[in-house]
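> agent: user asked for a holo structure of the chain below bound to zinc ion. Plan: (1) validate sequence alphabet, (2) canonicalize SMILES, (3) run complex prediction with ligand conditioning, (4) return tokens. Step 1... ok. Step 2... ok. Step 3 dispatched.
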Amino acid sequence: MLTDPVKSVPQASRETPKKDVPSLFQVLVIGALILLSFAASFLRPASAEETALPILVNKSHPLPADYDVTGFILLNTVETDLFTVKNKNTYADPEATEALLSLLADARKDGLDKWQISEAYRSVDAQQKIWDKNYQKYRNVNGLSKKKALQAVERRVAKPGCSEHHTGLAFDMTVPGKAFRLTPHAKWLATHCQDYGFIIRYTKDKEKYTGITEEPWHIRYVGIEHARKMVEENLCLEEYIEKYQNSL
Ligand SMILES: [Zn+2]
């Protein structure tokens, strides 16, 4: 009974649907794959972020109003003996902090310890206070005119909203009781920091671009790829952004 209808169907017509079903399936799969890869080409914020240029905050590039500082971590609560924190209430970007920890672990292997984080994330309000305090010092202690005091502060202190510390990606590394620029720590940082994604942000030879006097203690996290490239090409962040902003 069961075999009869099958037998009655001609061989070709029995095989045709068998062939058609998988080929239709294949078409669907291929179509889905094409759609997926097409969608993927639009849905790639992660890979865009990987290659995106580091954020630039300076005198002419204030921190964007929507810059997200949520998720920053309180450095004092990081369980490590690789650094101490000067002010208990200091926060920083978590990825940058992780990179700093691996940098400090390797520095310790080279015999360099007793690192202190003197500064990391700083709010715009806190920057305003520092700015005011410095201005008053130049006016009252150094006796400078308003104009001269202003110029003196501008050379040393970033305007509120224009400090790289607002990003949470910058750290001021010090060694308590020592002039940092004279320590082997400063030399080590300048030699190795790019391998952990950091740059010495304000160097003497780039003052004309950064507008900030040399600060061997101030490191800025930009990611390993960018940091190494900047060192390789001897570009400060301003020059780097200028060179590559149109090529990504
Ligand atoms: Zn700094």
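> agent: step 4 complete. Summary for user: Confidence is low (pLDDT under 50) at residues 1-21, 33-50. The pocket of zinc ion is lined by residues 119, 165, 170, 172, 218 (CB under 6 Å).
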